[in-house]
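Troubleshooting log. The previous structure file for this entry was overwritten by mistake, so regenerating from the original sequence record. Sequence copied from the archived sheet and checked twice against the printout by T.R.
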Amino acid sequence: MNPRCAKSASSFSGGSAVAAAAFAARVASDAGAAAKAATGASAARMTSDIALMQEPFQKVAVEGRRPGAGSERLEPSAVKRKRLRSAALAVMLFASPAAAESDAQLWTALSANGPAGGSGRFLLWFDGHARFRDDASDLGVTILRPGFGWKVSDDLSLWAGYARVVARRETGPDFEEHRLWQQATYPVASILGGRITGRTRLEQRFADSGGETGHRLRQFIRYDRRFADTPYSAIAWHEAFIGLNATT
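Regenerated output below.
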């Protein structure tokens, strides 16, 4: 073979190899780019699918949206705090009855009334009360109520008097009240071997702390039946207290 032809053939072969290598590299690069693009598209599609899958759960987690409220809504942390406050309030409500304390009290009374003159028409009245609290260990309230009256007839007596009431407080000064009172006593009926009597009383109440005068109506009914040949009686009574005005 002609040496010049051989050299040309060698040059041709070398150039073809370089061109082939360049072509192969380009094809590989294009394939890598295509694969990368496909991978990116798949990743984007997967991210979109995950977002779509999470959307219902996000709607469940975010509560408090109101129809027509726009974008206003409660965040999950605010919802949790609201639930905790509701639970704490429920516990407090159920715990309140258990925290109530009991207190046994002892109320004592002494009363006397009757004629003071020879004619029997002029009458005197007195009743006193001592009320103990804290399982009957501490004096809480005292009442002293003197008065006088006039017997109008066998069925009616009219009275007037004064009362001083002191309520002792555990802390702070005692509460004192002064009362003027007027009352009528009368028989109501005889029944079941006993008798029913009534008392209607009006009170004007003045507190040491000042303020308006309080007016109150008290209606008292009593049933008294004495047992024959004994010093004992069966007694039952009821008294209603009706405020006639509001005070400050």
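Residues 106-243 form one domain. Archived copy saved in two places this time.
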